[in-house]
Amino acid sequence: MVSEWASRRRRAEKADAQGLARAPAARTIARLMTIGRADLSKSETVTVAAIERGAPALVEAREILASFQAMIRKKALLDLDPWLARARSSLVACFASGVAKDRAAVAAAILSPWSNGQTEGQITKLKLVKRQMYGRGKIDLLQASVIGLQ
């Protein structure tokens, strides 16, 4: 019992000294930094606070990505050039260079009221049905399955 208490105490001291008991996985960090603050649990909030203390550049990257998302949603094309300038000097520089290379397409996506989201959803549903049938379906069976879902 004493050894268990001592080991718990050592782990707690190590966690207090470093902010976290062990470093979370990269995917976990990416997920925590991109979801909304209101959606975080108490332990996730503590983890995000420790990450922000340890890597302030991630906070800037999160803010830059959030501003890109807001720019797309608000259809604010005039914000694209200042966003690119800010993003080129941050952790998302690779993403920013990709956006800059395809600037015409990004500008069209910002200005256009059209989206291919509905089409992508239908294709995803069709692929799911096809996978569930393990390739057994010819066009008539596949058509019956898809129409039967709707």
TrEMBL record:
Limits of the Transposase IS204/IS1001/IS1096/IS1165 DDE domain: 8-142
Domain of life: Bacteria
InterPro entries: Transpos_ISL3, Transposase_DDE
Entry-linked Pfam families: DDE_Tnp_ISL3 (PF01610)
Protein name: Transposase
